[in-house]
Design a protein that fits this description.
Layout: E1 2-8, E2 16-29, E3 34-43, H1 55-77, H2 80-83, E4 87-91, H3 100-115, E5 119-125, H4 132-144, E6 148-152, E7 167-171, H5 172-181, H6 186-196, E8 200-206, H7 209-216, E9 222-225
Parallel strand pairs: 3-4, 4-5, 5-6, 6-7, 7-8, 8-9
Antiparallel strand pairs: 1-2, 2-3, 2-9
Helix pairs in contact: 1-3
Length: 228
């Protein structure tokens, strides 16, 4: 969608250049209408990987904050993304929610999206679940600002305490494996139970018509292709 250059400040005064890139991945409903778009961001880390901890993570989180600021500006400049879309999905590392500046940036992004009559949906991976006890109040703070949450799940996760998530996202390949291993229709029953509890189920990683057909046979409301 766009590229933006940024510089990393280093104590050695050696200037390194980092390019981060945004791409859009559509999330569609069962009838093919647009549910939302996920903004996928990545950057060329250059020598970040060689930096010792915790400097590596500090550089990562600083880059993420720069990316959020740039994204807010560019979304307001580009009306095409909001023309047929009401929700913007954005992945955030759980540990990033412990940074107050990231929270401010997410709130600013949510405000910018509201002006476009759009809703920010934060995608969290279930990895690092132990951090949830430290970020629950932050989730409610963001929810009060109109932000929704999506949890990326595996079928062996404990999903009894997924509130306050609005969306649950499952990978197509993991679904196939889980169904093959299931006993007494447990996976299928679990999906229908989650749907009845009010969660919107998203099936990601759709590679072909067979994946899509499998999702349609189950209570998935939305689908995301592997192609960005």
């Amino acid at each position: 969608m766009l590229k933006q250059s940024c510089s990393l400040d280093r104590k050695s005064d050696v200037s390194q250049t980092c390019l981060y890139h945004f791409s859009v991945s559509n999330i569609v409903e069962r009838k093919g209408t647009l549910c939302g778009v996920e903004i996928k961001s990545s950057w060329l880390e250059l020598q970040l990987a060689s930096r010792p901890l915790p400097q590596y993570y500090l550089a990562h989180i600083n880059e993420y904050k720069r990316m959020l600021a740039t994204l807010s500006v560019r979304l307001e400049q580009d009306s095409n993304i909001s023309k047929h879309n009401k929700q913007l999905f954005l992945a955030v590392e759980r540990i990033f929610l412990l940074d107050s500046e990231v929270i401010k940036a997410l709130l600013a992004l949510a405000t910018a999206l509201r002006r476009l009559e759009m809703t920010l949906v934060i995608i969290l991976n279930n990895d690092g679940e132990e951090l949830s006890q430290y970020t629950s109040h932050i989730k409610y703070l963001l929810r009060d600002a109109g932000v929704k949450f999506c949890l990326v799940c595996k079928f062996d996760d404990n999903l009894k305490t997924v509130y306050p998530f609005d969306f649950l996202m499952f990978d197509s390949k993991n679904l196939e494996v889980a169904i093959e291993k299931q006993q007494d229709n447990e996976i299928v029953d679990s999906l229908f139970t989650m749907r009845e509890r009010g969660f919107t189920l998203i099936l990601s990683g759709i590679a072909d018509a067979a994946d899509y057909s499998l999702g349609l046979a189950l209570p998935f409301s939305c689908f995301q292709s592997v192609k960005a």
